[in-house]
Design a protein that fits this description.
The chain has 144 residues and is mostly helical. 53% of the residues lie in helices and 0% in strands. Helix 3 crosses helix 4 and helix 4 crosses helix 5. The longest helix has 20 residues. It is elongated, with a radius of gyration of 23 Å. The N and C termini lie far apart (69 Å).
């Protein structure tokens, strides 16, 4: 299961970059969605390796955070195949995405999903807790 579609990539990145990254022929002016889908599938498979220990796969819903991480990883994979000047930026985004996935794997970061892979309902009313009465206040501190 892919966590992003070619349309997600097209919405996030400049068309000229995607055309160049997905086509061998420099005269082509359209994005090769087959190549794009392959990169997205590869990125999704890499993500599964990080989150499968914490969530039942396939996920019932794809959280927006996972969609973004999938696009970032796919973009890196596409740029790694081409000699582009933007590879360092893509590498940084890839490494950031992997760090986030490692945190998800360790339970330090959430995707907003339950262990069953379903987004929880909106949080209920938050309880407020009052602490003990203050020992020192302005009036008592004046006495010192």
């Amino acid at each position: 299961m892919s966590y992003a579609a070619p349309a997600d990539m097209i919405a996030r990145y400049p068309n000229r970059d995607l055309v160049q990254l997905t086509n061998e022929d420099p005269s082509v002016t359209t994005v090769n969605t087959t190549t794009l889908q392959t990169a997205l599938d590869d990125a999704s498979a890499e993500i599964d390796g990080y989150i499968e220990a914490r969530f039942s796969l396939p996920l019932a819903q794809v959280p927006a955070a996972l969609n973004l991480l999938t696009c970032e990883i796919a973009m890196y994979k596409l740029q790694a195949l081409r000699p582009l000047h933007d590879i360092e930026d893509a590498r940084k985004r890839y490494e950031d995405a992997i760090r986030k996935l490692e945190k998800v794997s360790k339970g330090e970061l959430t995707l907003g999903l339950s262990p069953a892979g379903i987004e929880p309902d909106v949080a209920q009313k938050v309880e407020t807790v009052e602490g003990p009465r203050r020992i020192f206040d302005r009036k008592r501190l004046r006495e010192f």
